[in-house]
Design goal:
Layout lengths: L2 H28 L2 H11 L5 E5 L2 H15 L4 E3 L2 H4 L12 E6 L8 H9 L4 E5 L5 H5 L2 E4 L15 H21 L3 H7 L3 H6 L3 H4 L8 E3 L4 H11 L3 E5 L5 E6 H6 L10 H4 L6 E3 L4 H11 L3 E5 L5 E6 H7 L3
Helix pairs in contact: 1-7, 2-7, 3-7
């Protein structure tokens, strides 16, 4: 592509982005009490949030429904034309509806809007036209600010759909935070792919119970070495009478104490009294980072009382696909 054509394409892209940024800035400044009311209404939904829209608004509605569903607010997309031919049955008592329309007068939305009014299903509108039919019918209306479309003819939905998408994200995140949606909740809804791997917690992949290499304080080193060899973690944990992790002995500790007296010693004289540990509820990637930082291959997972509840080896991270 000639340099002049490339420069022109970049200039157009920058103009589009500036126009859409201006729209988002106006949207942010215009947010008012209605946004809070919409969050209250949608968060209180006992059933599903049905998101609907026609054309480009419909494509945005699908994405908003998917974002809500993946962040703890059960949601679905219903095509307004299909709703008129039986899919209204997908909307039930206890549900709510979020309807998107640039003009607010989209004819295809009429049946789904009438259905919500007939059966008293809460309706939130998202549109650019205050006073439109959709605004007048809705329980709460989120009106987008008047902003130029990025299209030079002012016809193709660009800035308007960007604002709708961003406002939908804002609704989803506000509900997420209100519900206290946690990384563990997120993982339960995203078990596949890299995201699922990144959200694994230590307890998902650690070894526990009899698999842990543990000996009590005062044990002979011969017993500790036997446990290390049997359990194959390259270390052994030392617990006190209360079951708390008092120390750890690693292969490196054995090499440093190698001598005539090693096998006649007790674990108390060889162990490291400040072992690196991790919470069982921590993300597995955090455990991997700690192992890399301190050049170690195993970590004991502990509970709030400093008692070992599991052990994680770097090979477990490799098998889980997070290393």
């Amino acid at each position: 592509m000639p340099k002049d054509a490339t420069d022109n394409a970049i200039a157009i892209a920058r103009r589009v982005l500036r126009t859409e940024i201006a729209g988002l800035s106006a949207l942010m400044e215009q947010l008012d009490v209605n946004f809070g009311k919409a969050v209250d209404l949608l968060a209180a939904t006992k059933g599903r949030i049905t998101v609907t829209g026609m054309g480009k608004s419909g494509h945005v509605a699908r994405k908003i429904a998917a974002t809500m569903a993946s962040t703890g607010s059960p949601a679905q997309f219903v095509h307004p034309a299909e709703a008129s031919h039986g899919d209204l049955g997908m909307i039930a008592k206890g549900d709510s509806v979020l309807a998107l329309s640039n003009s607010g007068d989209t004819a295809e939305l009429s049946d789904i809007v009438a259905f919500t009014r007939r059966y008293r299903i809460p309706l939130v509108a998202m549109t650019r036209r205050d006073g439109s039919a959709l605004c007048e019918a809705a329980d709460i209306a989120l009106v987008l600010p008047a902003s130029d479309e990025a299209c030079p003819m002012g016809l193709a939905p660009t800035t308007s759909t960007t604002m709708m998408l961003a406002l939908g994200d804002a609704l989803a995140v506000a509900m997420l935070e209100r519900k206290g949606f946690s990384p563990n909740d997120f993982h339960s809804l995203h078990p596949g792919g890299q995201l699922g791997k990144d959200l694994l917690v230590v307890r998902d992949i650690m070894h526990h119970a009899d698999a842990m290499p543990l000996v009590p304080l005062g044990s002979a080193m011969t017993d500790a070495i036997l446990v290390m060899s049997t359990k194959s973690f390259g270390c052994v944990g030392v617990v006190d009478t209360g079951g708390k992790l008092a120390g750890i002995i690693t292969d490196g500790d054995l090499r440093r104490h190698m001598g005539d007296t090693l096998l006649r010693s007790t674990v108390d004289k060889v162990m490291n009294r400040h072992p690196k540990t991790i919470r069982s509820t921590a993300l597995a990637v955090e455990a991997l980072g700690q192992m890399n930082e301190f050049a170690i291959t195993s970590l004991f997972a502990i509970d709030g009382e400093q008692r070992p509840v599991g052990i994680l080896h770097i090979h477990d991270c490799l098998r889980a696909g997070i290393a």
